[in-house]
Amino acid sequence: xxxxxxxxxxxxxxxxxxxxxxxxxxxxxxxxxxxxxxxxxxxxxxxxxxxxxxxxxxxxxxxxxxxxxxxxxxxxxxxxxxxxxxxxxxxxxxxxxxxxxxxxxxxxxxxxxxxxxxxxxxxxxxxxxxxxxxxxxxxxxxxxxxxxxxxxxxxxxxxxxxxxxxxxxxxxxxxxxxxxxxxxxxxxx
Amino acid sequence: xxxxxxxxxxxxxxxxxxxxxxxxxxxxxxxxxxxxxxxxxxxxxxxxxxxxxxxxxxxxxxxxxxxxxxxxxxxxxxxxxxxxxxxxxxxxxxxxxxxxxxxxxxxxxxxxxxxxxxxxxxxxxxxxxxxxxxxxxxxxxxxxxxxxxxxxxxxxxxxxxxxxxxxxxxxxxxxxxxxxxxxxxxxxxxxxxxxxxxxxx
Lengths: 189, 201
Description:
The complex is a heterodimer of chains A (189) and B (201). Chain A has helices at 16-24, 31-50, 53-69, 80-98, 119-136, 140-151, 156-163, 167-188. With 189 residues, chain A is an all-alpha fold. Chain A is globular, with a radius of gyration of 19 Å. Chain B is built from five helices and eleven strands, in the order H-H-H-H-E-E-H-E-E-E-E-E-E-E-E-E. In chain B, 27% of the residues are buried. Classes of the chains: A mainly alpha (189), B alpha+beta (201). Chains A and B meet through helix 2, helix 3, helix 4, helix 5 and helix 6 of A and helix 2 and helix 3 of B.
């Protein structure tokens, strides 16, 4: 019998903990909820970290598959988001460590402006490319710190869970990242 | 490097209100916020299908290979791990390199047998999960028939490198302490590495 008068999980969006419990109980399809919930942010984070959408898609896909396979080791499902960012961040770091300096970068691949685009959209794309180039001049640690703080909107506590670093270290890194980015932006103006 | 006043850093950290910023500080703050807004645009594309295809992929079926191991001829053992003592290590190494004359599986050219051995006194169950089981439990269960705390299992695996972990009592993941080679598991821990060599014929 369906509907016993108790508010069922389908009446509201399940929490991360509930989704994790469903997956661990054998409902693999429930992992789709995790993907829908966090994919856009993870792709954005990886794309900004790596500067290349294909490499970012690989990092996020590999990270999510690893997360699924190791879901039982996620000790605090309530902090699933931080755990996923940590896994994908590690994939990004591995990729950056492997990547040779001859790899394609955003400098080599400027966005292609579609002639159908409005002038405003084209201008916005150029501004984004400028900011991406400036971001790419930062060290991976500073880039990660700026992205987690200002683009993903994390608190320093969340950043500590993602990176495994201490909060004072992260604060210093964010402060230096801001200064470095401002300087790079000035150069690319 | 460009200098950012500590007061502005504290404003950007949300620790101070922005009321008292100088014009230069406001300009710097606006530039950083504009950059963050542009970077916050989510890229198009999705990896959902790719990930769900992996999620839906059924686990490797090792049962048939295990059945072969029990019913057919000639085997060679390769690799293997945790050992209780040097003497046990030596004994296991000897077993590992001498081709068996007894019953065993018929191995393909690109297959070998991996023996997993671990000392887990008091454990209720021990199994191995790894890249060869798609990290799913239940496929390779170790046994301790004589209750001496030494758990063992043998499996046919494709030649090449495999990552693995022991899972003790269904919940404790343990990297083989004597594996010798490890690889980052992607989130701060290490998986043991096993290399299965092709059988010399």
